TrEMBL record:
Name this polypeptide is given: Thioredoxin
Alphabetical list of Gene3D superfamilies matching this protein: Glutaredoxin (3.40.30.10)
Domain Thioredoxin: 26-166
Pfam families on file: AhpC-TSA
InterPro entries, per the entry: AhpC/TSA, Thioredoxin-like_sf, Thioredoxin_domain, Thioredoxin_ResA/DsbE_sf
Molecular function terms from GO: antioxidant activity; oxidoreductase activity
Length: 177
């Protein structure tokens, strides 16, 4: 009887976990949404202007340990590949106070653009992102070719980006540095 109770409990736990994941996970998108992001510096970046180059969109929060752990790897990736036409845009979640976002961005010396998603429009456009970090790798043609909830496998993402850069002959359309 004890084994049956244990198995029933495990089944219920797995079922609830699956339902929770489906509710919290962003839906799979085929293409990047046509949205305009507002950066900490007041710049407007229409995502469509970045077509022609690989772009990594990274949703994060100042209260997210995985996000903070991932930042040095994102900085390294950006510094290596941005000169070749790669772009990263960090998007702070709507519940993150802007002063916390600014402080962490400055403390971590993030070289790539950081957008504030004050109303949650970007999170909704990317399939209702609720968990951080959530990352979307966008190909030069606008397709989302890789999506990850949680910390990324940086060697895998780097290889995907390098492959896309090798197939892209044109220089970056926008340089936000």
């Amino acid at each position: 009887m004890k084994l049956k109770d244990t198995l029933t409990g495990l089944f219920v736990l797995m079922l609830l976990g699956g339902i929770g994941y489906l509710w919290l996970a962003p839906s799979g998108l085929a293409r990047a949404p046509d949205i305009t992001l507002s950066t900490l510096h007041g710049e407007k970046i229409p995502l469509s202007t970045l077509r022609g180059q690989p772009v990594l969109v990274n949703f994060w929060a100042t209260s997210c340990p995985g996000c903070i752990k991932e930042m040095p790897h994102l900085v390294e990736l950006y510094e290596e590949l941005a000169p070749k036409g790669f772009e990263i845009i960090g998007i702070a979640m709507s519940y993150d106070p802007p002063d916390h976002v600014i402080a962490l961005t400055n403390a971590r010396k993030l070289p790539y653009p950081i957008a504030l998603d004050i109303k949650g429009d970007a999170a909704r456009a990317f399939g209702d992102v609720r968990l951080t970090p959530s990352s979307f790798l966008i190909a030069p043609d606008g397709r989302i070719v890789h999506q990850k909830i949680g910390e990324m496998d940086m060697p895998k993402v780097r290889a995907l980006i390098i492959d896309m850069l090798a197939q892209t002959d044109s220089p970056p359309l926008v340089n936000t540095n």
